[in-house]
Design brief:
Blueprint: E1 2-11, E2 16-24, E3 27-33, E4 40-41, E5 46-49, E6 51-56, H1 58-63, H2 73-86, E7 89-98, H3 109-124, E8 131-139, H4 145-152, E9 158-164, H5 176-185, H6 190-222, E10 226-229, H7 234-242, E11 247-249, H8 254-262, E12 266-270, H9 271-276, H10 286-291, E13 297-299, H11 305-313, H12 323-328, H13 332-337, E14 354-360, E15 363-371, E16 374-375
Keywords: Hydrolase
GO molecular function, one term: hydrolase activity
Enzyme class: hydrolase
């Protein structure tokens, strides 16, 4: 199968220029500068690599459209796939939580299994157009984590692990009083709040260290990338890096991001942090990391649309990044973080995961998407 484009503003790792591109059998076989008479006329629109989303909770939102209401997991996977493609996501890491920082799991194991089965059923029946993978979000304070991972880690879509610790009073939830206020607002007495916090901290002390080591060893044995989540300080980064983590996902302080860079880790921030102007939890701004030269990549977290907007926001003031550098934060840098060396760039012999983008009213709007050279959106 052959596909050709002309009159496109092609974004390569080094530059962006008007030119033409040829795809054969799902791979990029030719890239040329200047005017051509062969291929589909893209009318000067941007042609860039497909977006790679390392961490998204979007699938679960389609499965649980309202509290206490679940949807068909296969249907949820199909809807999730289409929504991602509509905003340029051609490779998606579905972030699924294993274990809970609460004493009782917030997501039952059977529901998690249904989600996984839904992805596989949709995939095996040709319902999904993007490349779907699983990113296991491992809550290291959970009593059940090793038991749960024993049943899950060998899944064929397993592609990434991350180590998490959502104990109130540190990392993402440094403001413990805010948690206390929320608990009290939900009817808990101060005595109950104190007991709940003590319970969280007791399970953290009992489980977190050994579970981090367990997850790290599992990722290493499978040859899968390992991320550390919501690191707060130098010690958090050093512990993770010493265990083999190569990705610092959503560091919450400038200090943690600086140490991650020193340890050779890829710094990934949440897209909504940049687009909204900051973290909803009061943590370090993605914009500050970008200006400090400490930002490598974005993940969508909870808004897939944020990724393509991040790339184009970085080309505007106050950042004024060149287009090829800005595009890299949602394409080649995530590919590197995920150890996917076959995609993320417009370069010879790379997968033809491509998107056509036109800016309208200050926003990047998708005009087309191709996955391995096949039109998908």
């Amino acid at each position: 199968m052959e596909l050709a484009f002309r009159n496109a503003r092609i974004v390569t790792p080094e530059d962006a220029f008007i030119g033409s591109l040829l795809v054969r059998d799902g791979k990029i076989t030719a890239i040329d500068r200047g005017v051509s008479e062969v291929g589909e006329d893209l009318e000067g629109d941007i042609l860039m690599p497909g977006v790679i989303d390392l961490h998204t909770d979007s699938l679960e939102k389609h499965y649980f459209p309202r509290a206490n209401i679940d949807w068909s997991p296969t249907s949820a996977a199909v809807t999730h796939d289409g929504c991602g493609l509509s905003v340029g996501v051609t490779t998606v890491f579905n972030s699924l939580s294993v274990g809970s920082f609460n004493a009782a799991p917030s997501r039952k194991q059977d529901r998690l299994q249904k989600l996984i089965d839904g992805i596989m059923e949709a995939r095996e029946n040709g319902m999904l157009k993007a490349d779907h993978r699983i990113h296991w979000r491992c809550e290291t304070t959970s009593d059940l984590l090793p038991e749960l991972l024993q049943d899950l880690h060998g899944h064929p879509l397993t592609s990434m692990f991350s180590m998490m610790d959502h104990t109130p009073g540190q990392r993402q939830y440094r403001n413990v009083e805010r948690h206390m206020e929320n608990w009290r607002a939900n009817g808990m007495s101060q005595e109950d709040c104190d007991a709940r916090l003590a319970n969280h901290r007791e399970r953290q002390a009992r489980n977190a260290d050994r579970n981090r080591k367990y997850v790290a060893e599992l990722a290493t044995s499978l040859g899968q990338p390992l991320a550390s989540h919501d690191d707060e300080d130098v010690e958090h980064i050093d512990v993770a890096a010493d265990l083999g983590a190569t990705v610092a996902e959503f560091p919450v302080t400038l200090e943690a991001a600086e140490r991650a860079r020193e340890r050779g880790m890829i710094v990934v921030m949440g897209g909504p942090n940049l687009i909204r102007g900051g973290s909803y939890s009061g943590n370090v701004r993605a914009a500050d990391l970008a200006e400090a030269g400490l930002l490598d990549a974005f993940a969508s977290d909870y808004v897939p649309r944020s990724l393509i907007e991040c790339a184009f926001a970085l080309t505007d003031d106050p950042f004024a990044w060149p287009l090829h550098k800005a595009v890299a934060v949602v394409t080649s840098a995530p590919a590197r973080a995920a150890a996917l060396d076959d995609r993320g760039e417009i370069a010879l012999d790379k997968r033809a995961d491509l998107i056509r983008v036109r800016q309208k009213g200050g926003l990047p709007i998708l005009q087309g998407a191709w996955v391995e050279g096949r039109r998908s959106a």
